[in-house]
């Protein structure tokens, strides 16, 4: 379970102070699929970064699985991030010098799994995203949709409890976006909690719950009555 | 190691820059180690024992002003005077100053009437006080007696009967044999000279000479128009004694030109070019190491900046700061290892050329290894700061930058 209470995030530069989040409170239950929408600059990425332990809040309380994150040091945060969180980025963020197998391997090595266990997990997630045949390809040899599927595989390989996605379909055409969305939905139905930032209202509507962030606050949080069924492509 | 395999494949994709920095390290190692060979050879040369109590010794050169001069009488009177001065251990008259770069040498043979082959030796005219004055070590036989002393005019022919030689010269003339009691002969002559004593070591006149250390002493005073004295002071009193000697000698006979010098200074002058070589090459070594370190700092910073995003991604995927620093240090270590391996090969190649073309000594393994260790340390040191700074790149870089 993810619980934020009165989170505040202030960015200070020489000239200005930006209050990216203020009085931000939110609870996300185990197994939820939450979509996050809101105008540009409203604080969506900031929220996701704090939720994913990429940044720390200026103020407020954040409990991840009951662990008070603000009390953790940098390397403990790294470990929590590594074990509990999978990240999916708009720009895929695969490491260009590594082949797909080694890309998925990166978080598993930090986790300290032995090579047999890593291989098992990598092969499993590669199969899950349907790219087993291309394990030795470099990221640049894949289409955008394929790259994002590898990024999802990498996020899933550690079997995280939370999958955080920042506009995962933002760089994809609608067909590829639909594929990725389907993948996320099946991952969610297998039990992984997903929080997804998106600009696409159609995709947002497919989530069980949508929260809207305006000006650094949760302005609206509503549960969709019924998850719409995806039309067959 | 934690991430060796993917690191190697990532390096392989950047092989040109990795190879260039490795090559830079390799060439530096090759140059530094070969310069090190020369430096260590010179340092050893400078550090060789001279066999003499150099720091306590003073030389005096004098030339009488008068054309007609009782040289033998003057020497006898000066010796009486010098040996009685406070602070003076002993003194003797001679023809040349050791290790000063100026001296005489001749060719000698173990058989009479020979003109080809033989062995060269640096020779000195001395009196029985020379062993005590110079602080030499007599390892076999005896010193000269007062009765063996010859006094001659400058143009007379000298037929030596007895000599004291250095161990080095004995070994050269009679390899593997005990030289004491044996006879040797000057070039083309048949008068035998008996070896009555053997001195452990005396470096002779020329420190750079290949045969330095092959020396013969004769109990002889030749009445040349100038003469030299060697004087040994009590430990720590050399400079005071030098002043006193100058004053007293001038007092005894003002009609001559005196020139005093410490033996330390002569020795220093003789090793001047070696010292310059050591300094210049050491500076080259330091400079090259510094430059290659700068290159590594530059490359590491460049690579880290190029991979800021990647570092952010790794952090987002769970890398600790230590993971990140270690990654770059390890990567640098791999490049350095490659560079050093190539450097070994190039260094040996250059050394082989130096050995055959310039008769330089062969590369000692220890020297090559220490140079490699120095470069490895320098390269890790150079990578350390950038690698530590890389760990400060925020994980948010993964989401914030495009
Ligand atoms: N590192 C930073 N330094 C200063 N200001 C920042 C920093 N990161 C974000 N901000 C500011 O914080 C505010 C919220 O940014 P955030 O990236 O969370 O918005 P967003 O909702 O994700 O926008 P978008 O939809 O365009 O991605 C913005 O005003 C942004 O300029
Ligand atoms: Mg954003």
Oligomer: heterodimer
Order of helical and strand elements of chain B: HHEHEEEHEEEHEEEEHEHHHHHH
Spell the H/E element sequence of chain A.
Answer: EEEHEEHEHHHEHEHEE
List each distinct ligand once. Answer: adenosine-5'-triphosphate, magnesium ion
CA radius of gyration of chain A is 18 Å
Q: What is the tally of beta strands of chain A?
A: 10
Q: Provide the helix percentage of chain B.
A: 40-55%
Helix residue percentage of chain A: 25-40%
Q: Quickly give the CATH architecture of chain A.
A: 3-Layer(aba) Sandwich
Main beta sheet strand tally, sense and closure of chain A? 6 strands, mixed
Number of domains of chain B: 2
CATH class category name of chain A: Alpha Beta
**Biggest interface, chains and residue tallies:** A-B, 33 and 28 residues
Sum up the overall morphology of chain A in one term: globular
The strands making up the biggest β-sheet of chain A line up spatially as 6-7-8-3-9-10
Query: Could you tell me the strand content of chain B as a percent range?
Result: 15-25%
Strand order in space, largest sheet of chain B: 3-4-10-7-9-8
Task: Tell me the CATH superfamily of chain A.
Answer: P-loop containing nucleotide triphosphate hydrolases
Low-confidence stretches of chain B: none
Overall strand count of chain B: 12
What count of structural domains of chain A? 1
Describe what this molecule looks like in 3D:
The complex is a heterodimer of chains A (233) and B (402). Chain A contains 7 helices and 10 strands. With 233 residues, chain A is of the alpha/beta class. Chain A has one domain (2-95, 154-223): P-loop containing nucleotide triphosphate hydrolases (Rossmann fold). In chain A, the strands form 2 sheets. Chain A has a 6-stranded mixed β-sheet, sandwiched between helices. Chain A has a 4-stranded antiparallel β-sheet with strand order 2-1-4-5, covered by helices on one side. In chain A, helix 6 (174-189) links the parallel strand 7 (162-166) and strand 8 (193-197). In chain A, helix 3 (100-111) crosses helix 4 (115-128) and helix 3 packs parallel to helix 5 (144-157). The radius of gyration of chain B is 32 Å and the shape is elongated. Helix content of chain B is 51%, strand content 18%. Chain B folds into 2 domains: 4-47 and 272-399, no CATH class; 66-254, no CATH class. With 402 residues, chain B is an alpha+beta fold. Chain B has a 6-stranded mixed β-barrel with strand order 3-4-10-7-9-8. A 4-stranded antiparallel β-sheet of chain B has the order 2-11-1-12. Classes of the chains: A alpha/beta (233), B alpha+beta (402). The interface between A and B is medium-sized, with 33 and 28 residues. Residues 44-45, 166 of chain A line the site of magnesium ion. Chain A: This is ABC transporter ATP-binding protein. Chain A: Keywords: ATP-binding, Nucleotide-binding, Transport. Chain A: It comes from Biformimicrobium ophioploci. Chain A: Residues 2-233 form the ABC transporter domain.
């Amino acid at each position: 379970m993810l619980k934020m209470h009165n989170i505040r995030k202030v960015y200070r530069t020489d000239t200005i102070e930006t209050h990216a989040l203020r009085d931000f409170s939110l609870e996300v239950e185990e197994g939820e699929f939450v979509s996050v929408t809101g105008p540009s600059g409203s604080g969506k990425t900031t929220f996701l970064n704090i939720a994913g332990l990429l940044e720390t809040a200026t103020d407020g309380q954040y409990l991840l699985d009951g662990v008070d994150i603000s009390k953790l040091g940098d390397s403990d945060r790294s470990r929590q991030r590594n074990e509990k969180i999978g990240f999916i980025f708009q720009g895929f963020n695969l490491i260009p010098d590594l082949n797909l197998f080694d890309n998925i391997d990166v978080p598993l090595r930090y986790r300290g799994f032995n090579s047999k266990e890593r291989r098992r997990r990598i092969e499993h997630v590669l199969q899950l995203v349907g790219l087993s045949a291309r394990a030795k390809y470099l990221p640049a040899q894949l289409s955008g949709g394929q790259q994002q599927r590898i990024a999802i595989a990498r996020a899933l390989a550690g079997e995280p409890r939370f999958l955080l996605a920042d506009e995962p379909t933002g760089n994809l055409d609608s067909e590829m976006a639909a594929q990725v969305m389907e993948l996320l939905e099946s991952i969610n139905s297998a039990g992984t909690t997903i929080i997804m930032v998106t600009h696409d209202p159609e995709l947002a509507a497919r989530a069980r719950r949508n929260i809207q962030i305006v000006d650094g606050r949760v302005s609206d949080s509503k549960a969709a009555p019924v998850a719409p069924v995806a039309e067959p492509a | 190691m934690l991430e060796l395999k993917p690191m190697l494949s990532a390096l392989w994709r950047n092989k040109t820059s990795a190879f260039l920095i490795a090559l830079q390290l390799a060439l530096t190692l090759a140059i530094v180690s070969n310069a090190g060979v020369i430096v260590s050879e010179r340092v050893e040369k400078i550090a060789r024992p001279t066999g003499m109590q150099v720091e306590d010794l003073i030389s005096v050169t004098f030339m009488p002003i008068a054309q007609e001069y009782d040289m033998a009488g003057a020497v006898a009177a000066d010796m009486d005077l010098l040996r009685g001065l406070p602070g003076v251990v002993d003194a003797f008259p001679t023809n040349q100053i050791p290790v000063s770069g100026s001296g005489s040498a001749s060719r000698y043979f173990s058989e009479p009437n020979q003109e080809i082959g033989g062995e060269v030796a640096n020779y000195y005219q001395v009196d029985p006080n020379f062993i005590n004055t110079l602080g030499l070590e007599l390892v076999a036989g005896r010193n000269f007696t007062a009765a063996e002393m010859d006094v001659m005019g400058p143009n007379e022919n000298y037929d030596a009967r007895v000599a004291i030689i250095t161990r080095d010269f004995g070994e050269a003339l009679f390899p593997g044999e005990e030289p004491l009691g044996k006879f040797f002969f000057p070039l083309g002559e048949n008068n035998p000279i008996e070896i009555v004593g053997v001195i452990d070591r005396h470096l002779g006149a020329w420190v750079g000479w290949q045969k330095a250390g092959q020396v013969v002493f004769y109990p002889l005073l030749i009445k040349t128009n100038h003469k030299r004295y060697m004087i040994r002071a009590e430990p720590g009193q050399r400079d005071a004694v030098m002043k006193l000697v100058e004053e007293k000698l001038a007092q005894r006979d003002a009609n001559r030109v005196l020139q005093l010098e410490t033996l330390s200074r002569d020795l220093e002058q003789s090793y001047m070019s070696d010292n310059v070589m050591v300094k210049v090459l050491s500076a080259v070594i330091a400079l090259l190491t510094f430059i290659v370190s700068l290159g590594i700092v530059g490359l590491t910073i460049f690579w880290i900046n190029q991979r800021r995003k990647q570092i952010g991604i790794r952090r987002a995927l769970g890398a600790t700061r230590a993971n990140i620093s270690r990654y770059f240090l390890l990567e640098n270590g791999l490049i350095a290892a490659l560079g050093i391996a190539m450097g070994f090969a190039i260094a040996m190649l250059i050394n082989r050329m130096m050995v055959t073309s310039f008769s330089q000594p062969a590369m000692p393994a220890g020297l090559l290894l220490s140079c490699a260790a120095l470069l490895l340390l320098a390269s890790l040191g150079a990578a350390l700061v950038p690698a530590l700074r890389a760990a400060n790149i925020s994980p948010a870089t993964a989401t914030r930058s495009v």
